[in-house]
Amino acid sequence: MPESTADPILSLLADRIVNQKVVSFHGEPVPKDIKAHPKPIHLSVGTPHHGFFPINGVNLDITLEPFGETTETVKVNKVANDATKELDIKAAFQYGPTQGHPQLLNFTKELIAEVNPPKYKDWDVTCTNGTGDSFNKVFGVIVNPGDVVLMEAYTYLPVCNYITNHGGITVPVVMNHTSQENPGIDVDSLTELLENWETHHPQLRRPKALYTIPTGQNPTGLTISQFNRAAIYNLAKLHNFLIVEDDPYGYIQLNDRVLKEEITPYQYVNELLPSSYIQYDTTGHVIRLESFSKTFAPGTRLGFVVGSSKIIKHMVKFADITSRAPSGISQVVVNQFIQAVGGVEGWINWNINVSKEYARRNIVLIETLQKSEAFKKGYMKVIEPDAGMFAIVELNFPPNEQEDYRSELQQLRCRLLESGVVVTYGSNFGISEEYSKKAKFIRLTIAAADDSSEIEEGMKRLGEGILKHFEQ
Ligand SMILES: Cc1ncc(COP(=O)(O)O)c(C=O)c1O
Predict the structure, then answer these.
(1) Ligand 1 lined by 246 (C-beta under 6 Å)
(2) Which residues form the domain of 301?
(3) Measured at the alpha carbon of residue 408, what is the angle toward residues 405 and 409, in degrees to the nearest 5?
(4) End-to-end CA gap in the chain
(5) Which of 66, 78, 128, 306 is a Cys-bridge partner for 133, taking CB atoms 3.0 to 4.6 Å apart?
(6) Per residue in 45-81, pLDDT tens?
(7) Coil, strand or helix: which one is 140?
(8) Rounded CA gap, 359 and 447, in Å?
(9) What is the three-class DSSP state of 62?
């Protein structure tokens, strides 16, 4: 029998996903009265015995703070002593469950329950090959050709590819990207757009989802307020669309307190980390994406998705016919690090230590730019980020009639290349041509430099390049 599409959440699934059949070679269930042998010999599936694996053990030399020396060696055993938390070679190097190995999956659930608990019971998690892969799965299960996804006007543009790849259409939502005053999505404008959708977009269906980066937004580095999150969640409920919350930067807080105080994980979670949209969720309208890329390592290609089990179930099915399980080798490395540092609390501590380094770098970025002549002469405004690894600099270009600053940004690019600094340009983050044209900002990251002194030198070069651009 088809799943009921009267259910508001299920009604948001793509047609091809509802009751999708995944075939396998396991055959029909056997009659219930068959008394199976308690210890059968498995001659069934093609899982090589772990004796065939050429690795007997791995030593992970871990550090407890970024740029730290090795402080501890964590052994990955061929066979775990206690498999409740420990992931071993035998399991990790084997075919694994599509949702992720139970040890890591349980950690993600504990993390969510402690840091960002939804307000309803029937939520679930699935591990993925990083957020890029989560995009494919989330939009793969909800987007029919012609479906609409709302996006912040300036955003992490590659996400659009996953939406259009499934035939979806992206529509921009007005945001405040140039100040700390009420940053992020403009709630009044979103409300008006939704109330008058048919007038604004008579040829389009009503939106199925809103994609948003709520904390340390890419590209702006800004964080939307709790008040606005609550209001947007209410809109999602009222107009029945999903909020796809992409939060790879949420755990990196740049607040002074991380540098000035000895923050405990409890204080970090309760006093510094913003509450996810999912903490407002009573209905399953929020899908939260987390990634191990930014505070562990991007090469793990590991992330996870939290949401209503009604949606997660279909994402797991979708994974069965696309990526299958995330790499067990990545999972064992991440899991054994997390278990070695002490589970959820240790993971939060690691994130505090990561944040300390980012906060130090951020201060150098802001202060060096503010000392520059270009800043003092009013050629630029630095938008101070509060989380993550990006900051934007708004340039005070003279207004032009067409409101098109792309060639000015291109000229600035040449000056900055001459000055010896590479940045990213606002026009490359606009969700539509209109927003690309209007962008007058550049995006800087504090993530890639060797150290703070390299950031200082980069900011000096940036200041010089901007000065040259305005005065030549
Ligand atoms: C907002 C945002 N989402 C997702 C990603 C990609 O995450 P992952 O490495 O987990 O695929 C990035 C990477 O820069 C990002 O900025």
Answers:
(1) yes
(2) 72-351
(3) 85
(4) 71
(5) 128
(6) 899 999 999 999 999 999 999 999 988 999 999 999 9
(7) helix
(8) 11
(9) strand
- pLDDT, averaged across the chain: 96
Tokens 């054994």, residue?
336
The pLDDT, as a whole number, for residue 130 is 98
Structure confidence at residue 71 (pLDDT)? 85
Q: Are residues 335 and 457 in the same domain?
A: no
The answer to whether residues 372 and 323 belong to one domain is no
Q: Whose CA is closest to 244, among 317, 129, 142?
A: 142
CA of 143 from ligand 1 middle (Å) equals 20
CA 359 to chain centre: 20
Q: Is the pLDDT of residue 2 over 60?
A: no
Q: Which of 359, 377, 374 is nearest to 419 (CA)?
A: 374
The identity of residue 10, as a single letter, is L
Report CA(57)–ligand 1 centroid distance (Å).
Answer: 31
- CA–chain centroid gap for 336, Å, is 22
Same domain, yes or no, for 201 and 286?
Answer: yes
Is residue 303 within 6 Å of ligand 1 at its C-beta?
Answer: yes
User: What pLDDT sits at residue 20?
Assistant: 83
Give the relative orientation of helices 406-419 and 452-471 as an angle to the nearest 10 degrees.
130
Residues 165, 86 share a domain: yes
211 Cα to the center of ligand 1, angstroms: 13
| Of 351, 379, 397, the domain-final residue | 351
pLDDT in tens, 265-318: 999 999 999 999 999 999 999 999 999 999 999 999 999 999 999 999 999 999
Task: Specify whether 115 is located in the same domain as 160.
Answer: yes
Structurally, the chain folds into a number of domains equal to: 2
- Ligand 1 pocket residue status of 217, Cβ below 6 Å: no
